[in-house]
């Protein structure tokens, strides 16, 4: 079960503001013009020790009257199908509208958990007015102001209470997710890997109904492929394909150890690719960039080196990511993609002995000590790798709060160079000794 919380509701009720409040960043563009949310809005929220992905559905509606309400309906349907929990946002300043009623009708039919949230309740008069929303018949109704943040704590307490702990599939084998925009060649890649020889594939029933876990077992390599590409193509999805594929990508990322992000060689890396990349990075997953359809480019002047330089400038600052140029259709460099993925999986599992870590890092720190802060010399005494599922390191020192971001990056780069963490996000923490 992957924990996706979807915020649904008609335009202008404040979905983007609430989304920003929950993920703690000014990530969405906020404007009074309805339909302005063009950002692909999904991010990670952490509360009470639980992490979940928040999706602001507002970013996926095209702004034309006739399509508008239809798009919202189809979004609500996708959210019902794909999310673990739904926040239904309404606006006290306009009262209950017809579109609110319609969304409510759809949500009342589902057995998913739905929280009705009345927004813009920022004074006593509005609190009185907000009581009319009880008539919509949702047992859990919250009054808040996403602009000031009042009331969001209670909402988050309830959200984390209702979400089950997401337990990934138990296996020692690597789990690779194949993600990317629609039509980039995900299905062709899966077919090229698994071949038509389906007897080497076991689709394990009951892992999740959202993605197919196929066991790959040939050429002395074994891993699970999490494929979201070929899953029950819904007839109604086409107008909201992007939103649907994003929900799917998030789920695959959550379950994977390493993500293969497929990018179309003809378009290069686009905004939505970057969003998927950042979600995988934030969730500390291994990453491999696969530039598909490269066979169509080779006749042109584009060299792989230029293309790679351009991609690295887009994904900065996390540029230590392998890039493989391939063609799923022509089966070019498919084996290489898998070898690189297995290498990234190994890097993510890597544990470095404390003695080796300290010997190397103390040497680095001696040559390049952290800059002093207001006359205080910062001394880093001891380094250890934390016992968690991805590479994270704790540096114990006398003034942990005063270490600059640039120095943190310097230490991370040294760790990468010495111990090879290609393709894997690293966390560096400073603790009081």
What are the key terms here?
433 residues; alpha/beta; six-stranded mixed β-sheet; 12 helices; 15 strands; 21% strand
Task: Summarize the model shown.
The protein is α/β, with parallel strands linked by helices.
Low-confidence stretches: 26-40, 197-210, 230-239
Radius of gyration: 24 Å
Q: End-to-end span in angstroms?
A: 38 Å
Percentage of helical residues? 25-40%
What is the strand arrangement across the widest sheet?
A: 2-3-1-4-5-6
Class derived from helix and strand content:
alpha/beta
Structural account:
By secondary structure, this protein is α/β, with parallel strands linked by helices. Helix content is 34%, strand content 21%. Helix 8 (271-282) links the parallel strand 10 (258-264) and strand 11 (286-292). Helix 2 (65-82) packs parallel to helix 7. The protein starts with a strand and ends with a strand. Mean pLDDT is 80; it is low at 26-40, 197-210 and 230-239.
